[in-house]
């Protein structure tokens, strides 16, 4: 007999039950747990509203991952589920079988439905019966409290109909229902609309924030108090925050950076084109409450004092990832980057220094520190003007980094004319020299050589990176 036959029988049994909704509802209390998911799927897609409403009240799992079934939200089926929750939260004593604490409307849970419908029958079923770790911080909430998780991607001037309906439903049930999200993404929505939506959300649930739109510093300052309430925030990504003329920079920077004092779980900080940080980086670093895992400050101007403060910050000593791409370091003291790398050498796994204006003398100064980054896996220096001679030294100093598996380096200076024109035929000759260096070092290795971005103009070119590969020749 095929291992799938019993599971097909379950589906057939569920389909047979749904022919009489009244009978289904009457036996839910006695229905085996393994029948609930396949029966729920059939009821959901068949739009059996009364069955859905009753099944929610008897749901034998902590979480109902409804979002995994909703390619397009359907008002009728969603309403049936919400009606079932209304009945559930109104009861002083929940049904014996019901364990529901979380209604998950995010596009997750496909694994749950596959497992219980039989496509992964070998998985330990007990794992789905226990409360999930992400809700453990709120286990002291009253038993009647139920959480509804949604994805918040705020990208229009007006909210979509589904989210408006859900927000109103939650708003009418304050005290028994909490609207939560783990990841907040803001693309084009006006600040006032963002504040209006977030006033309905449990901000301490948010673990990741992405702001992928152009904001003035004053707009960021208006958003900052909301950010400070996200006490469990772990990951923050900000893109293109500009300092416009006549803005009160110091006050706005303080209003933003002071909120970091309340973020005790922040681990990853990514800031793309934060023009307001020039001369103010120390203000932000001094407000960090925990060591960071990843720090990215890219495509902006920093002062030498900023980089000094960065190298002295105690909360960057455990960095796994550091990205300073697009930050011009040409006129800075070479020792600054050396001190910074020495600070993170024990833990650093990824280092990006693309388009930093690094010259031979600066790279030579950091080579000893770079050679001590024993955990380094990815290293990129594209877009810098480096000679063939210094690249040979670079390859020598990094040959002992056994974890280093992805290396992206710029086309050597000799690939360009004095006017800055790139000559691919010169690079072909230089690649042969690089291969000889790798062969002489004696360790199998692949490095990628790229002329993009251009170290002279900063623009991306149409030339694709070329690999230089050295591997052992195994005798036949």
Automatic annotation (TrEMBL):
**Domain of life the protein comes from:** Eukaryota
One term under GO cellular component: cytoplasm
Is Repeat among the key words of this record?
yes
- Would the keyword Cell inner membrane turn up in this protein's UniProt record? no
Q: Which residues form a coiled coil?
A: none
Q: Which GO terms describe its biological process?
A: negative regulation of apoptotic process; negative regulation of cell differentiation; negative regulation of DNA-templated transcription; positive regulation of cell population proliferation
Q: Which SUPFAM superfamilies match?
A: RNI-like (SSF52047)
Q: Which family does it belong to?
A: Belongs to the PRAME family.
Protein name, entry field: Melanoma antigen preferentially expressed in tumors-like
Q: Which organism is it from?
A: Lipotes vexillifer (Yangtze river dolphin)
Give the taxonomic lineage as stored in the record.
Eukaryota, Metazoa, Chordata, Craniata, Vertebrata
């Amino acid at each position: 007999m095929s291992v799938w036959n019993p599971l097909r029988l379950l589906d057939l049994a569920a389909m047979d039950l749904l022919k009489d909704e009244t009978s289904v509802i009457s036996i839910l209390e006695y229905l085996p747990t393994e029948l609930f998911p396949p029966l729920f799927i059939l009821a959901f897609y068949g739009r059996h509203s009364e069955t859905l409403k009753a099944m929610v009240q008897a749901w034998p799992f902590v979480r109902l991952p409804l979002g995994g079934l909703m390619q397009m939200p359907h008002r009728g089926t969603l309403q049936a589920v919400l009606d079932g929750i209304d009945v559930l939260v109104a009861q002083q004593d929940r049904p014996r079988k019901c364990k529901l604490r979380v209604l998950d409307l995010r596009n997750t849970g496909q694994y749950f439905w596959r497992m219980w419908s039989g496509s992964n029958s070998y998985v330990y079923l007990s794992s789905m019966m226990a409360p999930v770790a992400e809700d453990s911080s709120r286990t002291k909430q009253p038993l009647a409290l139920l959480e509804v998780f949604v994805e918040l991607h705020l990208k229009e001037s007006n909210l979509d109909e589904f989210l408006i309906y859900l927000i109103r439903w939650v708003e009418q049930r304050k005290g028994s229902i909490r609207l939560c999200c783990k990841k907040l993404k803001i693309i084009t929505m006006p600040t006032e609309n963002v504040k209006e939506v977030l006033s309905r959300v449990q901000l301490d649930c948010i673990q990741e924030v992405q702001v992928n739109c152009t904001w003035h510093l004053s707009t960021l300052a208006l958003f900052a108090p909301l950010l400070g309430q996200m006490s469990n925030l772990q990951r923050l990504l900000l893109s293109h925050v500009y300092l416009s003329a006549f803005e009160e920079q110091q006050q706005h920077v303080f209003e933003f950076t002071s909120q970091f004092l309340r973020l005790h779980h922040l681990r990853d900080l990514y800031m793309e084109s934060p023009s307001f940080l020039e001369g103010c980086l120390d203000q932000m670093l001094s407000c960090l409450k925990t060591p960071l895992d990843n720090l990215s400050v890219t495509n902006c101007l920093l002062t030498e004092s900023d980089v000094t403060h960065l190298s002295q910050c105690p909360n960057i000593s455990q960095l796994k990832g550091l990205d300073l791409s697009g930050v011009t370091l040409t006129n800075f003291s070479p020792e600054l980057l050396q001190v910074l790398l020495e600070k993170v050498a024990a833990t650093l796994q990824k280092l990006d220094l693309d388009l930093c204006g690094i010259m031979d003398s600066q790279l030579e100064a950091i080579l000893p520190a770079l050679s001590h980054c024993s955990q380094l896996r990815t290293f990129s220096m594209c877009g810098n003007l480096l000679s063939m001679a210094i690249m040979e030294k670079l390859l020598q100093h990094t040959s002992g980094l056994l974890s280093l598996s992805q290396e992206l380096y710029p086309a050597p200076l000799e690939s360009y004319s004095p006017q800055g024109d790139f000559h691919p035929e010169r690079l072909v000759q230089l690649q042969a020299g690089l291969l000889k260096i790798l062969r002489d070092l004696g360790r199998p290795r692949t490095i990628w050589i790229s002329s993009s971005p251009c170290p002279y103009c900063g623009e991306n070119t149409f030339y694709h990176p070329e690999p230089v590969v050295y591997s052992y020749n195994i005798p036949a």
